[in-house]
Amino acid sequence: MGSGLVAVALEYAREAVLKIADAISEGEVVPVETAHVSGVSYITIGEHGIEFLEFLASSGAKVAVFTTSNPAAVDLGGVLEVDEKTLEGQRRIYKALLTMGVSTISSCTPYEFIMTRPRTFHAWAESNAITYINTFRDAWSDKNPGPLALLGAIAGYVPKTPLYTIEGRRPTAHVKIEVGPLDSLEAGVVGALIGERLGSGVPYLSGAVFRDEESRREFAAALSTYSSMVFAVVEGTTPHWREYLHMGDFRDRITISREDVAKYLGDVETPDAVYIGCPFADPDTVLWVLGEVKKRGPAKRPIYVSTSPHVYRQLGKLVEAASRLNVVIFAGTCLVVSPFTKRFKSIATDSLKAAFYIPRLHGVRVTPCRRERCIELAYA
Asked: Where is the Phosphomevalonate dehydratase large subunit-like domain (predicted)?
């Protein structure tokens, strides 16, 4: 492909980002180290989205920074059946992204292997991942829409919105957490409650203790799902938390109690399937599920576990062994963005993010439950 065409594509991306910057950040931009692109599932972007990606790819566009992609509509090993139209659409999306130099990791947890350093700039578009690196690493990214993250990856910069400034990260609400240590479900509920009660701003959490990596992931996912917030300061955990505490302007003060968490959860119905892994499950969670199922024998109802291709490959023969226990481990997609989900009437999950999106995207009832209770329901 000629250098002239590449230059035209680069100029197109730069001009687009600068025009957006004129509208939202007084024309200021910040250079980014990495980018992560969302909106790459065929069922979410459809033909018009593919045409946009193919236009960029055919124009010679190339990413200027290390860029990864979100989950697709098709899983890595073809475990979840999808129609031919979806397969072909996803193939075209992959081809366009690869042509532009995007690393198609098909994961919503790129922070597993991208070690974002504190106070470095990034153009990420997946809300749970943005919230995770902002909150637990103090790496800086705003909630960039998928197309903007891609254009920013090509241009090398994005608009300098408030979250790319120290002033814009000033805590605006003090949140006292009176429940914990938080398991994955409780962490999600706390994130959802903070999101619903505050809606926007930067919460500062005192008293919050996360039980494990999965609980941190679920908190980040729920906070950004139930509000516009993608950054929280967790006392004793977030890098530079003392600096943030000192500069805090606490216009709001709320408390999340054990009773608040209990009220948020209702009765759990017997589901068609159990789903764990939204955001993608880490190795410890996958192994925990397999350990619980091995104690009981093959599950009566299928247990679906989504994880990243990176973790999936590490599991090796455990994936096949799990299938004999009616545990379906798959990678590269999730039940939120896969059309496979429509075959169910009800799903039980420990993910507040899945509980929010699956009914809206697929019309399937979802009941939140603790991981232990979810496993029990697979045998009910």
From this structure: 9-376
